[in-house]
Write a structure and sequence with these properties.
Order of helices and strands of chain A: EHHHEHEHEHEEEHH
CATH superfamily of the largest domain in chain B: Aconitase, domain 3
CATH topology of the largest domain in chain B: Aconitase, domain 3
Structural class of chain A: alpha/beta
CATH class of the largest domain in chain B: Alpha Beta
Shape of chain B: globular
Number of helices of chain B: 14
Number of strands of chain A: 7
CATH topology of chain A: Aconitase, domain 4
Strand order of the largest sheet of chain B: 4-3-2-5-6
CATH architecture of chain A: Alpha-Beta Barrel
Number of strands of chain B: 18
Oligomer: heterodimer
Chain lengths: ~160, ~425
């Protein structure tokens, strides 16, 4: 099962990973301190494939890529939020952390719910209460980058112009 | 035809572009610092292609500089080795990246600059497009010289009137953050203009684009005018001619009109930038540290305001008062003109230029239970140290008045 870990509105990058831990770029090292102040039990109890659920403006604040890397390093399957802050959105796409924008799911999922997510269709099922949600589709060029596993992999195979082609 | 951001992007795209379109544009400069460059180097190595144009890359060591610990030192070493290996021409180690970018003339009207730092929005003060991105995109831009953008919708903030003595651009911007909220500008360009902005000197203008980041904006822009051109010609090595790009028949998503004439000093209170109150609502609240620094408010004129208030006085003996000039150039001018002596005589500790205490890694870390009043732009929980500490944001004048008493104090009583 994928367990949901819920976070509130305006979850900022300092709350995702405080600045003092950003001295490393190792995903597993960063993951040791992800959400350490707002939800210390996450690091102790989260299992690979669990799902992060946030409210409006998830990831606001700093441009630090350490924030999505720390989440990805914790082996979370994806982040579902009502909306994402713009730099976090770009960073998540660029490093290959799946993100789903879905205001209804953000409200309809509670801490500990068993959540099934289909990343290719954007369908979200809350198995605890049986509700289904459909995430907003990602723009085509974002899907291209996401499908390549991030912008670095995309560039290994393509010219940057092809992003918009 | 369009908003200021549409005009800037259209020139670069070579044809009219409008809000909602996705564009792939050449960038003029690609900025990163000691916190974000190591990840950009990692992305660059993984891509495995050469740098397109070394002249576009500008690197700064400012966030944890000089190194406060071995890991930071290793980061600096990694960056310096990379600069040597790639023979990169633009490396700076004498101040906050955004201030140095302005001083060194990298930012000119209509230019497009991406930075691996959220406050890259600052460059909008010159009528340039500046925006913050993550490190991987910086590594990508080193190789491609390009970046994709969605042309944003625009919120126009029309400011009229003149502030009263003791009220500054910082108070106005904090007030705006309170009105729009911390996600009020998300994905948007926020255009600042009107009579108030027209009459504002450059050091005060910079506050608005700089703090547009705190309301989620993609960029904050002020159209270039005589003030901009005079700054570029007199204070920077930038070479003209400079184009004055202005909005042309713009269609705004929203227009916010504010008369600043009656505004009192404002404070953004713990724990969010939009938890804004008039200073009088928190007057007298005990403060353990006053921090005057950062890319928001540590320019020469800010230090001058602080020195004028502290001259011949002593700061509260139980309050830690730290002044970190934004750049070495500012430090030098403040030293030459006697400001540093006034600050030291008043009981402040003056540190080397850089980001200092703003990111909670060195230079003024807060203990649990401590409260800071600072000239910073961001008051996230735990940003300056313990998650059990509190940060209040205000103008340099409010910071100076507060330093004297150790309690949040209205500067209008000691000007």
């Amino acid at each position: 099962m994928s367990k949901a870990w819920t976070f509130g509105e305006n979850m900022n990058t300092d709350e995702i990973i405080p600045g003092r831990y950003n001295i490393t770029i190792d995903p597993l090292e960063l993951a040791k301190n992800v959400f350490c102040e707002v939800k210390p039990e996450y690091v102790k109890n989260a299992q690979p494939g669990d799902v992060i659920v946030g409210g409006q403006n998830f990831g606001c604040g700093s441009s630090r890529e350490h924030a999505p890397i720390a989440i990805k390093g914790s082996l979370a399957k994806c982040v579902i939020a009502a909306s994402f802050a713009r730099i976090f959105f770009r960073n998540a796409v660029n490093i290959g952390l799946p993100i789903l924008e879905c205001p209804e799911a953000a409200v309809g999922i509670s801490e500990g719910d068993d959540v099934e997510v289909n990343l290719s269709t954007g369908e979200i099922i809350n198995r605890t209460n049986g509700r289904r949600y459909q995430a907003n589709p990602l723009p085509d060029f974002v899907l291209k980058i996401a499908d390549a596993g991030g912008i670095v992999n995309f560039l290994k195979m393509h010219d940057i112009q092809e992003v918009l082609a | 035809m369009g908003t200021l951001i549409e005009e800037i992007f259209s020139r670069r795209a070579g044809g009219t572009v409008q809000a909602g379109e996705i564009v792939l544009l050449d960038v003029d400069y690609i900025m990163s610092h000691d916190n974000t460059t190591p990840l950009a180097i990692k992305a660059f190595r993984e891509i495995g292609k050469p740098i397109l144009d070394k002249n576009k890359i500008v690197l700064h060591l400012d966030h944890a500089y000089p190194a406060p610990n071995i890991l930071a030192a290793e980061n600096h070493r990694k960056i310096l080795d990379f600069v040597k290996e790639q023979q990169l021409p633009h490396l700076f180690q004498q101040g906050v990246c955004h201030q140095v970018m302005l001083e060194e003339g990298f930012v000119t009207p209509g230019s497009i600059i991406i930075g691996a730092d959220s406050h890259s929005n600052t460059y909008g003060a010159m009528g340039a497009f500046g925006t913050g991105l993550g490190s991987t995109e910086i590594g990508v831009a080193w190789v491609t010289g390009k970046c994709w953008f969605k042309v944003p919708e625009t919120i126009r903030v029309e400011l009229s009137g003149h502030t009263q003595p003791g009220v500054y651009a910082k108070d106005v911007m904090i007030h705006i953050a309170g009105l729009l909220g911390m996600d009020g500008g998300t994905y948007r360009s926020v255009e600042f203009g009107g009579e108030y902005i027209d009459n504002l000197p450059m050091h005060e203008r910079i506050i608005f684009p700089n703090m547009s980041t705190e309301i989620g904006a993609k960029c904050g822009l002020i159209a270039a005018d005589d003030v901009t051109i005079a700054y570029l010609e007199n204070e920077t090595p930038a070479k003209g001619p400079f184009e004055r790009i202005v909005p042309a028949n713009p269609r705004y998503e929203r227009v916010l009109e504010i008369d600043v004439s009656l505004l009192a000093p404002q404070v953004a209170c713990h724990p969010d930038v939009d938890n804004v109150k008039p200073l009088m609502a928190v007057e007298g609240l005990e403060v353990h540290e006053v921090y005057i620094g950062t890319c928001t408010n540590a320019r020469y004129e800010d230090l001058e305001i602080v020195a004028n208030i502290l001259k011949g006085r002593k700061v509260n003996p139980l309050t830690r008062v730290i002044v970190t000039p934004a750049s070495a150039r500012i430090y030098k001018k403040a030293l030459k003109n006697g400001l540093i002596e006034i600050l030291i005589d008043a009981g402040c500790i003056v540190t080397g230029a850089g980001c200092g205490a703003c990111i909670g890694r060195h230079g003024g870390i807060l203990a649990p239970g401590e409260r800071a009043l600072t000239t910073m732009n961001r008051n996230f929980v735990g940003r300056m140290g313990s998650p059990l500490s509190e940060i209040y944001l205000a103008s340099p004048a409010t910071a100076a008045a507060t330093a004297l008493t150790g309690r949040i104090t209205d500067p209008r009583g000691c000007l």
